[in-house]
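Researcher: Let's do a round of design. I'm pasting the structure tokens now; please hold your answer until I've finished.
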């Protein structure tokens, strides 16, 4: 086991028999998450990230590899603990709150075996943590989406799990609420000193919350790293495309010298009449306070370009640009 790992996945595979033969959903998944850190599995729908989460929880059997938590093997080649034996908490997409129980009752549900006094003390502790002390007697339908999320989090934390898993924790919230609550949820998890792993398809959520992020595609974990390293040093073409709205363009198109492809992001190009790169402006969007344009390059590739705050050129016009990345990220042809 990796020295500082609290959660470790070593070559984990998950698959199912189907009408067309065996279908592998997750393959060779390996990662290490230190104690107290927040990890994220990031990728498009169907990439296997939720299946990986369910395998850690014990809801899906693994077909290869091993899962270890706090030095205890949760699942291996010939061994698997039942979900209730894993000390793993789970917070679901829809929060799954009990409508007939008030906030305190929902939080207390997972610790009903505790004696009355310690159970009440734990509920009160969690109400303070999630800033819902005055809502203890409110029912779920009386709460906002953000408050419901906090109740679901408190309920998941109540049994003091060794690991908390969160499945798309912001999917049921509007965009503005998601952005605000991502930072709040990170603060709450850090305050609770809870090691956590969540899945999302939104890189802004992953970057706002996680200490380490894994990018998944078609059942493979392409890179597991700090958010800044994923952005600055993508180890795989698909990571480069997925993180930061990147586009891979042949080096020859940019007159960058050498072979292979170069990663371009919106901030790498700027309008410049003396530039050497031309493209057709196909769309313009005001992002406040700047405009952003969609540009089609001569080779057919399209990318977003920051146009600045001034009134942009008309759609359909040719945009002359300068490429200003002194240390480009390259990938072999």
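Researcher: That's everything. Go ahead.
Model: Designed sequence:
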């Amino acid at each position: 086991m990796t020295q500082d790992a609290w959660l470790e996945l070593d070559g984990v595979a998950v698959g199912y028999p189907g009408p067309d033969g065996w279908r592998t959903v997750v393959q060779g998944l390996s990662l290490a998450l230190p104690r107290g850190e927040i990890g994220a599995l990031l990728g498009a729908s169907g990439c296997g990230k939720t299946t990986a989460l369910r395998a850690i929880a014990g809801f899906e059997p693994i077909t290869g590899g091993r899962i270890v938590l706090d030095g205890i093997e949760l699942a291996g080649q010939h061994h698997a603990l039942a979900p209730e034996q894993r000390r793993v908490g789970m917070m679901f997409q829809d929060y799954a709150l009990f409508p007939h129980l008030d906030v305190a009752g929902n939080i207390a549900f997972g610790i009903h075996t505790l004696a009355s006094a310690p159970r009440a003390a734990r509920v009160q502790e969690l109400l303070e943590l999630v800033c819902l002390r005055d809502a203890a007697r409110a029912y779920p339908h009386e709460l906002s989406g953000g408050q419901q999320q906090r109740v679901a989090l408190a309920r998941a934390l109540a049994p003091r799990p060794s690991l908390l898993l969160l499945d798309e924790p912001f999917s049921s919230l509007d965009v503005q609420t998601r952005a605000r609550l991502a930072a709040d949820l990170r603060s709450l998890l850090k305050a609770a000193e809870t090691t956590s792993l969540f899945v999302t398809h939104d890189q802004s959520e992953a970057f706002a919350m996680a200490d380490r992020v894994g990018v998944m595609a078609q059942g493979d974990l392409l890179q597991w790293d700090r958010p800044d390293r994923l952005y600055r040093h993508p180890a795989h073409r698909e990571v480069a495309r997925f993180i930061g709205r990147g586009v891979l363009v042949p080096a020859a198109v940019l007159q960058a010298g050498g072979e292979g492809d170069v990663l371009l992001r919106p901030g790498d190009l700027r309008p410049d009449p003396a530039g050497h790169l031309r493209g057709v402006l196909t769309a313009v969007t005001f992002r406040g306070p700047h405009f952003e344009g969609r540009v089609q390059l001569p080779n057919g590739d399209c990318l977003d370009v920051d146009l600045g705050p001034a009134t942009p050129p008309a759609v359909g016009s040719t945009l002359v640009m300068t490429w200003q990345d002194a240390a480009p990220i390259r990938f072999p042809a």
